[in-house]
Amino acid sequence: MLCPGCQRDVTPVPVGFTWWGGVLGSKLLHHVECPSCKARFNGNSGRSNNTAIGIYLAAAGIIAVLAGYLLTRAH
Predict the structure, then answer these.
(1) Residues 39, 46: contact at Cβ < 8 Å?
(2) Which residues are within 8 A (CB) of 64 and not within 5 positions of it... i.e. 6 or more apart?
């Protein structure tokens, strides 16, 4: 795969944990890292995951707010 950061043909390494998605988010978005330049991107498309990360964080935030609301409303 061609790394979008350094433009080298590399075998990217799966990212096991990220601050934004923990273990689950990086697996759902196929987040990988270039062993040469450490650029992180989508292992399937070779493109940036920035938009997908934003959507993931927004969805997680909405779920957290709804869960908090439902928990406080139940008491």
Answers:
(1) no
(2) none
- What would you measure as the largest C-alpha separation in the chain, in angstroms? 57
For 44, residues 6+ apart whose C-beta sits below 8 A from its C-beta are 30
- For the entire predicted model, the pTM comes to 0.83
Quick: pLDDT tens for 16-62.
999 999 999 999 999 999 999 999 999 999 999 999 999 999 999 99
Report the candidate in 53, 55, 59 with the shortest Cα–Cα distance to residue 40.
53
User: Is residue 9 predicted with pLDDT exceeding 90?
Assistant: yes
User: For the chain, what are the domain ranges?
Assistant: 13-73
**Surface-to-core class of residue 63, CB atoms within 10 Å of its CB (0-12 exposed, 13-18 middle, 19+ buried):** exposed
